[in-house]
Amino acid sequence: MASLAAIFGSGAMTNSIREIEGMEVIFIIGSNTKETHPVIANRMIKAYRKGAKIIVADPRRVPMVRFADVFMSLKPGTDIALLNGIAHVILKEGLHNEEFIGEKTEGFEEWKKSVEEYTPEKVERITGVAKKDIVKAARLYGGSRKAGIFYTMGITQHTCGSDNVRAIANLATLTGNIGRESTGVNPLRGQNNVQGASDAGCMPNVYPGYQLVENPEVQAKFEGAWGVPLSPKAGLKATEMIPAAHEGTLKALYIMGENPVITDPNTHHTVEALKKLDFLVVQDIFLTETAALADVVLPSTCFAEKDGTFANTERKVQRVRKAVEPPGEARSDLSIILEVAQRLGYPMKYTSPEEVLLEFGQVWQNLAGITYQRIEKEGIQWPCTDREHPGTQYLFKGGFPKGKVPFSPVSYTPPAEVVSDEYPFILTTGRNLYQYHSGSMTRRVDAIESHAGEPYVELNPSDGERLGIGDGEEIRVASRRGDIKIKARITQRVSSGTVFIPMHYREAAANVITNDALDKKVKIPEYKVCAVQVSK
Amino acid sequence: MMMKITIDGKSIEVPQGTTVLEAARMLDIAIPTLCHHPKLTPFGGCRLCIVEIKGIPRPVTSCTTPASEGMEVTTSTPRIKDLRKTVLELILSDHPNDCMVCERAGDCTLQEMAYAYGIRENRFAGERRIYTKRDGNPFLERDMEKCILCGRCVKVCDEVQGVGAIDFTYRGFQSKICPPYEEDLDCEFCGQCVAVCPTGALAGKMWSHKGRQKGVREVDTICSYCGTGCNITLHVKGNEVIRVTSREDTWNEGWLCVKGRFGYQFINNPDRLAKPLIKRDGKFEEASWDETLEYVGKRLNEIKASHGPDAIGGLSSARCTNEENYAFQKMLRAGVGTNNVDHCARL
Questions:
Q1: Would the pLDDT of A16 be above 70?
Q2: How large a percentage of chain A has pLDDT more than 70?
């Protein structure tokens, strides 16, 4: 999201979910939309029924492929080559948007040179995608002026994740497919309130509303608002805190509602790091794998037990309402935070969650117009700058916050770990339809657990045959970091040479073997590619 | 192009392609329907929406008849009422009279129609379809004895969900809706079919005997799984969430996925943490809030005093609300004095 923000000036989904219906071309790359965002997929299917063309690029034959005009089964980690290749064809066939490029962009000529080498022939060699499919995708996307791109972690969870996003933005900029209704770039957020947690400044380099910590004016503004001196330097990212704990420079960690033992890469390393802390506080609704390592566990409430708001992937702030009482003595996260802050010598006096949102709106103009009363029936999409403002259906209608959109040359670099004789398979990870993230919620739902309660590794039939592995057979998957035992699921969903493990299952936790190599800019781990061996 | 149409003496201009049923609903004229659903293509299957149109000798189904210029429609005459009642009696002649134990009683369109038309005895009583098969899946209960073959489930599965797991099979009295070869349902279990079923033929298995309307509160909120942010309604009895639905008038149009619709049992799960815990000698012990909070405050203050504020970090949650996230980072930044705060956007 940080990379998208650097290019367009905002890192959120530029269109609304409803607008998907009006798109002519839908380009899905690195998103298993039908399983991870099923209701958004419903809108895509609606667009398809109205005649929209769908392009899917994914290492796996994901369910949306059924609706696709073009399916590009690329090798994991080769997205930049594919995207640059598509741009190359668009340029060569003159499908680019000269008017848009001339008026609203900069750096075109230099960038153009950078994609010259990405001929369909070369891209076919790198990605494994047939030349004709690259050309077909380029003609579809480049031939439309009402096209949307959709992506998720399949794009970002790579050591080159931020460059992947740049390559996507370049395509949208090249064709002018941005800033209009049913036309834009749309990262789909994986968790109910990732958007809101980011908006609220739960990131080490920005205050609420993406205002830079290291900008002295911003610092002064927040010192004024909060009445205390604030630190002038950016803090540690989540993926840096774990190593810092390991090295002993981070002494205490307060974790609210996260389960890094399961969700972070390289589990053994994460557990060791958390054990080295002098003090670990975990605030959660279950005694998760992470909470089990804590010095103190604070019982909190789930979404059904509190009032507040979530911001969804289309920037819509929606009302969350209390329906049931929490179990036993569990307390809302907000009330716990206020108690702890009091004991840290910084009392925060809020009498209701709404007061917090109103303060948030005072420090970030984009939320200034939102009150609980205004979102009683339906949520409002930010920016919503005053009480009369109706909210913003799609971004950049009146131009881009930074003026011109830069083209940013990006080149293909292989993943941090490539296959070798010893580790000949590429492992990619993700979610399935039924389970969710670390499984602490869904694995406690009997129906889901009885239907999809068993971990599995997807293996192509030809690989299964070659290794003598049958469907349902227990096998060993190992990387340089660890190994797990897991049942094989023989399926055409993965291509030969690639295996897939869903991340949800603690008894065969994929992250025991994933690589904790990080993207150099945004520090996202490379969950989507690592080299493994598969054996009986 | 706009068309002027008159229904029961009231006139309205509607865009070309509007059906007579849609035009009537714009005029707040009630026409009963069973198979029609505003988000699905019309089918004309149940025949309840029949109306008389001037110049057409026989009654026509209003859901499939497009409005045309100058059309004059009558929605309710003794003849129409009588025909509708007969249609209902025919449907009910092959329907188990077990509303007392049906999950959908009180929220069933068919029951409501029988009530409106005062149907109790049935002059067409006779042989009934018997359906004993029970699906093995843990999500959806399919009781085809209660199915009126309206086809809404078939359409929603195909048109909205793009799955096409079920369709009509056999003919006449043997007609039923089922997966290929009458095997167990094997689909995405989104439950869209349950949401549109007008009778008790489809229901959630986990809803069984948990409660219908009496003593059940409905609370509108937002789903807590992925970032789509679907509107959901929690049905609560006592202090337990017993069912999740979604309203059709929300942006997600009432559509949900398997997690959103059926993944709610973690809320009332017995594993939920209910007391603060402090680890002593490697074991967790329950403690009071006061003691726990004092301890947390003391330890954090000690670490800050001896190692500086940047020795402390916080991981916030994409599961929590905007308000909680705002307060959390403010606690770290203003309370502790560090910018070491992040959440799982990257994970």
A1: yes
A2: 99
Q: Is B251 within 8 Å of A192 when comparing Cβ atoms?
A: no
Q: What pLDDT score was predicted for residue A241?
A: 95
Q: Nearest 5°: phi and psi at A252? A: -135, 145
Position B346 scores a pLDDT of 61
In chain B, residues 284-343 whose CB comes closer than 8 Å to chain A = 284, 289, 292-301, 303, 307, 309-343
Nearest Cβ partner for A522 among B190, B267, B346: B346
Task: Give the model's pLDDT for residue A41.
Answer: 97
Of residues A525 and A120, more confidently modeled: A120
Question: In terms of CATH architecture, what is A425-535?
Answer: Beta Barrel (2.40)
Is position B218 within any domain?
A: yes
**A·B CB contacts under 8 A:** 468
Lookup: tokens for A44: 């895509």
pLDDT at B227: 93
Q: Does the beta-carbon distance from B226 to A191 stay under 8 Å?
A: yes
Among the listed residues A141, A127, A115, A154, the one whose alpha carbon sits nearest the alpha carbon of residue A31 = A154
- Closest to B246 measured CA to CA, from B219, B227, B215: B219
In a domain? residue B67: yes
Q: Which of residues 54-113 of B touch A (CB under 8 A)?
A: none
Same domain assignment for residues B291 and B335: yes
**A380: pLDDT strictly greater than 70:** yes
Q: Decide if pLDDT at A417 tops 80.
A: yes
Residue B91's φ and ψ, nearest 5 degrees, are -65, -45
Mutate: best of B320, B329, B341, partner A, most A CBs <10 A: B320
pLDDT digits (tens, 9 = 90+) for B79-110: 999 999 999 999 999 999 889 999 999 999 99
CA dihedral A215, A217, A219, A224 (to 10 degrees): -170
Phi, psi of A425, rounded to the nearest 5 degrees = -105, 150
Report yes or no: B70 and B42 within 8 Å, Cβ to Cβ.
no
Separation of alpha carbons B332 and B314, rounded Å: 7
How does B294-317 read in b/e, with b if 16+ C-beta sit within 10 Å?
Answer: ebbbebbeebbeebebbbbbbbbb
Whether residues B315 and A258 touch (CB distance < 8 A) is answered with yes
Q: Please, which residues 128-157 of chain B have a Cβ atom closer than 8 Å to chain A?
A: 137-139
**Which domain, by its residues, includes B331?**
277-346
Is residue B236 included in any domain, yes or no?
A: yes
Residues B247-299 pLDDT 10s = 999 999 999 999 999 999 999 999 999 999 999 999 999 999 999 999 999 99
